[in-house]
Amino acid sequence: MYEIYHNPHCSKSREALTLLRENAITPVVVEYMKDPIAKSQIIELLRKLSLDPRDLLRKSEREYKTLGLGDKSLSDDYLLNAMVGHPKLIERPIIVKGDKAVIGRPAKEILNLMK
Predict the structure, then answer these.
(1) CA quadruple 17, 100, 37, 60: dihedral positive or negative?
(2) How far is residue 27 from each of residues 17, 63, 71, 81, 108, measured CA to CA in Å?
(3) Residues identified as active-site
(4) Which is nearest to 45 in space by CA: 35, 33, 57?
(5) Rounded to an integer, what distance in angstroms lies between the CA atom of residue 63 and that of residue 19?
(6) Is the model's pTM score more than 0.90?
(7) If we measure between CA atoms, which residue out of 56, 51, 46 comes closest to residue 87?
(8) What is the tens place of the pLDDT at every residue in 27-68?
(9) 1 CB contacts (<8 Å, ≥6 apart)?
(10) Residue 56: other Cβ atoms inside 10 A
């Protein structure tokens, strides 16, 4: 089973969803902007992605700058709380299959999960 953490307003996210469907995969779609994900879910995604919280942040978002998230002294817990409070900060799309996940940027990264 596949899951996609999806923002329908994001072209890369739409592209990833299309790629999955073109490969006969009907994923569970998690629209995290409508139904924000819990801190524990973000931690689980990070584990599956093998990333640190800072690596999952969208640095181009206005909230990244206004919250001062570029400050290297901020704790992982602080960054996680920022993502919970401002889900727009979470890099997208995230595609999960079992115990593995990838960020679908570029969309061809998703092919690594299909192997």
Answers:
(1) negative
(2) 8, 29, 36, 27, 16
(3) 10
(4) 57
(5) 29
(6) yes
(7) 56
(8) 999 999 999 899 999 999 999 999 999 999 999 999 999 999
(9) 27, 28, 97, 98
(10) 20
